């Protein structure tokens, strides 16, 4: 039986990307700076976010969405810093997508929220394919994980805008080679901004706060996280 | 393992395309997949077959064309292929190459349909 070819040229992630675009426009209109956080499980996303929310909450409206397969534990932790926290439990799904963000924001007024943080499921693979409408993506790497994480997971590091090296208070004990880690990050994402922090001691957090506050001063972007192809 | 979610999105996408063209009898799907798309080719092939079950695409073949990583070297002013996915630099002059030209694609290029 003969066949014919039909040209389609359709992005597989079209539905997600359209939703992400609509979210990004909404965030821009409400002047909310939205930051996505990705990392492997246990690298300190929630501890970092606790410190960030507590530090910013004094002068700014802050909110957070936090994704996990199960439990509300992380939301409970973050609610110590702000009541504006919602847990997204994904069941068996290994990543957040734009529709989950849209549903989680239903009934939420972002008008007075300067910063919304979206903590993804701990996973360095799957979240890289899903635009959530965030303005910047932070990838976290803990000093105890080893210097070569960026080389092993180049896609997520390359799709992120800022790298945060966490647990710097444990760097010596873990014999963490900071120079190599920085070189590896630079290798997978040339020019990437890097912060070294300890959520426990507060080391380096001042620079993160300065960076975040500077984001409010600049006009909100509507550009998608990854390159824009015709949707 | 998010390839199953990706396969389901793909099948929805194809169903939409098919419907907009009055219903197609799809025998094969040609997908362009970048090496930097964050999706494993073999896992996607496996997930596609599963996800097609009970849909009009059941029995169709998925043919994946791998799109290589291409970057722009600002020093040589040329398109280049970096040494690897974890060394995003120019293979000639070793300059860092933040600008990625191809490699993130994940698109249904065409459908092979019964004539």
TrEMBL record, chain A:
Q: Which UniProt keywords apply?
A: GTP-binding, Hydrolase, Metal-binding, Nickel, Nucleotide-binding, Zinc
What the entry lists under Pfam families is as follows:
cobW
Q: Biological process (GO) annotations? A: protein maturation
What Gene3D superfamilies does its record include? P-loop containing nucleotide triphosphate hydrolases
Gene Ontology molecular-function annotations: GTP binding; GTPase activity; nickel cation binding; zinc ion binding
Q: Which family does it belong to?
A: Belongs to the SIMIBI class G3E GTPase family. HypB/HupM subfamily.
Show the PANTHER family listed in the entry.
HYDROGENASE MATURATION FACTOR HYPB (PTHR30134:SF2), HYDROGENASE PROTEIN ASSEMBLY PROTEIN, NICKEL CHAPERONE (PTHR30134)
* Protein name (database record): Hydrogenase nickel incorporation protein HypB
Q: Which organism is it from?
A: Granulicella mallensis
From TrEMBL, chain B:
GO molecular function terms listed in the Swiss-Prot or TrEMBL record: nickel cation binding; zinc ion binding
Gene3D superfamilies, A to Z: 3.30.2320.80
Q: Which superkingdom?
A: Bacteria
- Gene Ontology biological-process entries: protein maturation
Which residues are recorded as binding Ni(2+)?
Answer: 2
* Any Pfam family matching the protein: HypA
In terms of InterPro entries, this protein maps to: HypA/HybF (IPR000688)
Annotated keywords? Metal-binding, Nickel, Zinc
Sites where the protein binds Zn(2+): 73, 76, 90, 93
What is known about what this protein does? Answer: Involved in the maturation of [NiFe] hydrogenases. Required for nickel insertion into the metal center of the hydrogenase.
UniProt lists the family membership as follows:
Belongs to the HypA/HybF family.
Name of this chain's protein: Hydrogenase maturation factor HypA
Which species is this UniProt entry from? Granulicella mallensis
Query: Which gene is this protein's source?
Result: hypA
